[in-house]
Amino acid sequence: MVVDFFPGNSKAPCSCGKPQFKNTKHIKTISYFLLTKQLSAFVADHNTHNLLLKTHEPSEEGVLEDIFNGKVFRDCKQELFPNNLDIPISLFIDGFIAFKGSNSSKMTILHIVVLGLPAQERYKKEHMLQVAIILGDHNGDLYTFLRPLLNELRTLEAAGIRVTCPDGVFTFNVH
């Protein structure tokens, strides 16, 4: 699902005070893919939620393969992630040029890695989530474009999400 946060017929002024339109077209746009919907599908998948439920144990005693094997995390785990299915994530932001040799195809992607997966699984393309693509070069303030995601993350952390699927009902928070 793609959400249009700035509908074409919107004439509301931008909160930053800068012009929102140029010749009746939006100056900047964003394609935003709801994280809640993506995580619902992610958890509803039998294989993925089984991976999320796996405990992060080192393969060898005394070997730290991941941050989740460390003493600091283990000491704080119950407080940070009281539900076995709570999902720690990491947000990455990267700019790229979609078409070689074209300065007009600059874009910025907001990309989520699910840290709750085992280390050997979390960077596989089927386990990573793209939540937004922002057209244009964004070397400056990205906060306007991050706001929808940050609001959604606050809700997912505080209220969580409930997913019903053939394997059962799963309730979790995202951190």
What this model shows, in words?
With 175 residues, the protein is α+β, with helices and mostly antiparallel strands. The protein has one domain (2-6, 30-172). Helices cover 27% and strands 26% of the residues. The chain has 5 helices and 9 strands; from the N terminus they run ββββαααββαβαββ. The strands form 3 sheets. A 5-stranded antiparallel beta sheet has the order 1-4-7-6-5. Strands 2-3 form a two-stranded antiparallel sheet. A hairpin with a 2-residue loop joins β2 (21-22) and β3. Mean pLDDT is 80; it is low at 1-8.
- Spatial separation of the terminal alpha carbons: 22 Å
Counting DSSP E segments of at least 2 residues, the number of strands comes to 9
Q: By helix and strand content, what is the structural category?
A: alpha+beta
User: Main beta sheet, described?
Assistant: 5 strands, antiparallel
Give helix and strand order, one letter per element, not per position: EEEEHHHEEHEHEE
What's the average pLDDT? 80
| Order of strands in the sheet with most strands | 1-4-7-6-5
What helical percentage do the residues reach? 25-40%
The structural domain count equals 1
Rounded to the nearest angstrom, the radius of gyration is: 19 Å
Tell me what portion of residues adopts beta-strand conformation: 25-35%
- Gross morphology is elongated
In the predicted model, the low-confidence regions spanning at least 5 consecutive residues are 1-8
Instruction: Please give the count of helices.
Output: 5
